[in-house]
Design a protein that fits this description.
Helix content is 81%, strand content 0%. By secondary structure, the protein is mostly helical.
């Protein structure tokens, strides 16, 4: 932790952001992120239509949609730590787009499971959620993302107030942890990939904690 604190301190006490660090409003950036984020869905649709998803097409689609949701959620969580470390502000401008894309893919993941894999059999879905820990973890993660998506607008930010809004949106870390747990329990054998995402989450959390420690020290002085 001390090394992380030192790294953040060094960035905060360094000279102004280097040349090339984005400073403008970049209004085109969020739409570009959304457009790019939907390309994997289009590719997945083409593969499904052409029968290129393999012998177990539903499982392949579920895996791809779930992985996209997790990657985008972690990317949205990386926005603030990246800003703290680099001084760039553009990550904060795409954080909302990344978070909503993550929610979209998480919903697509669950709907594919419920509608295609389970045929909307409510009893089977409830049994899966209550009896299979990895499905329970994923389902709870999805539920946690719902209030975050619902309060993602500027109007909700104003209504809740900045402090309450920030506290609420810290739930995103819990959702991401549950997403990693869901992934870890799903793969069963080779846990290399979910462990990589777990390490990334730990790093992002360490940067946030280090920044909070520095702020408290500065306030005491």
């Amino acid at each position: 932790m001390s090394s992380t604190v030192d790294a953040v301190r060094a960035v905060k006490t360094a000279s102004p952001p280097r040349a090339g660090a984005p400073r403008g409003k970049l209004p085109w950036l969020p739409p570009a992120i959304v457009t790019g984020g939907l390309i994997p869905l289009a590719v997945l649709g083409v593969r499904a239509f052409t029968g290129a998803l393999g012998p177990n097409a539903v499982a392949e689609a579920l895996n791809q949609l779930g992985l996209l949701a997790l990657v985008l959620l972690i990317a949205s969580l990386a926005a603030t730590p990246l800003k703290l470390v680099s001084g760039w502000t553009f990550p904060l401008r795409i954080r909302k787009a990344l978070g909503l894309l993550a929610f979209f893919y998480a919903c697509a993941h669950f709907l594919t499971y419920a509608g295609v894999d389970q045929g909307l059999d409510v009893r089977a879905i409830v049994e899966d959620i209550t009896e299979r820990p990895f499905i329970l973890a994923g389902f709870v993660a999805l539920l946690l993302l719902v209030p975050l998506a619902a309060t993602s607008t500027a109007r909700m930010l104003k209504r809740l107030g900045a402090a309450r809004w920030k506290r609420l949106h810290r739930i995103a870390y819990v959702a991401a942890v549950l997403g990693v747990v869901h992934f870890f329990l799903r793969v069963k054998k080779d846990a290399t990939e979910p462990m990589i995402y777990a390490a990334l989450l730990a790093l992002l959390f360490a940067v946030r904690v280090a920044s909070a420690v520095l702020r408290r020290r500065a306030a005491r002085r």
